[in-house]
């Protein structure tokens, strides 16, 4: 099997998918991918960015989802989606950059749109556009477009989607909008860091018996007290915050992952 330069972790060395049954194995943050597929670097309504990272592999369900989503958003008049990291050819853990994305069921979609075919240099070094003024916990109104709302609604409305992670300010923005159907908002979950991209997570596929799902999101649209709890708290300068050092727990992957990695 083809290898990348020495020094990468074992999962990053592998350059080709494992030619076994199509299965997501383990949990989103501790697992691997069998029978993965590569997302073509360009398709109807999307372009893959930073392709040299070799992170455009996913479970066939994810590849089908992304191609379906891109066609739908193009039909709504959106410019090309910029698809970033999905998984490595056989999934597994990254040296840096992600703790999840290990089973081919997670994908990052940037909130920038590509109006035309990007140059090779632009694909490798795209400019991220943040939707959030992080210091003031506020939406950057000049960067937010009606197309973003369409993207979130279309992306979250597909039944195979388990969650979409996004910065709490973006979730608040979506909550404040008038929607005839608000059910899809339940899947849009607040999480720090996701201010220039959305992180789509699919449910465990049928046939992936060793795939570990998350619990379903809480009932409701998630626009109430839970979302308010993410807002920054006033700082009390009189309090001393104790610091503790947490030991990093070593995660043991499912046994099937050893086969996926080495054969």
Automatic annotation (TrEMBL):
<dbReference type="GO" id="GO:0004252">
    <property type="term" value="F:serine-type endopeptidase activity"/>
</dbReference>
<dbReference type="GO" id="GO:0046872">
    <property type="term" value="F:metal ion binding"/>
</dbReference>
<feature type="disulfide bond">
    <location>
        <begin position="32"/>
        <end position="257"/>
    </location>
</feature>
<dbReference type="InterPro" id="IPR009045">
    <property type="entry name" value="Zn_M74/Hedgehog-like"/>
</dbReference>
<keyword id="KW-0574">Periplasm</keyword>
<protein>
    <submittedName>
        <fullName>Penicillin-insensitive murein endopeptidase</fullName>
        <ecNumber>3.4.24.-</ecNumber>
    </submittedName>
</protein>
<feature type="disulfide bond">
    <location>
        <begin position="175"/>
        <end position="223"/>
    </location>
</feature>
<keyword id="KW-0645">Protease</keyword>
<dbReference type="GO" id="GO:0006508">
    <property type="term" value="P:proteolysis"/>
</dbReference>
<keyword id="KW-1015">Disulfide bond</keyword>
<dbReference type="Pfam" id="PF03411">
    <property type="entry name" value="Peptidase_M74"/>
</dbReference>
<keyword id="KW-0862">Zinc</keyword>
<keyword id="KW-0732">Signal</keyword>
<dbReference type="GO" id="GO:0008237">
    <property type="term" value="F:metallopeptidase activity"/>
</dbReference>
<keyword id="KW-0479">Metal-binding</keyword>
<keyword id="KW-0482">Metalloprotease</keyword>
<feature type="disulfide bond">
    <location>
        <begin position="204"/>
        <end position="211"/>
    </location>
</feature>
<dbReference type="GO" id="GO:0030288">
    <property type="term" value="C:outer membrane-bounded periplasmic space"/>
</dbReference>
<keyword id="KW-0378">Hydrolase</keyword>
<dbReference type="InterPro" id="IPR005073">
    <property type="entry name" value="Peptidase_M74"/>
</dbReference>
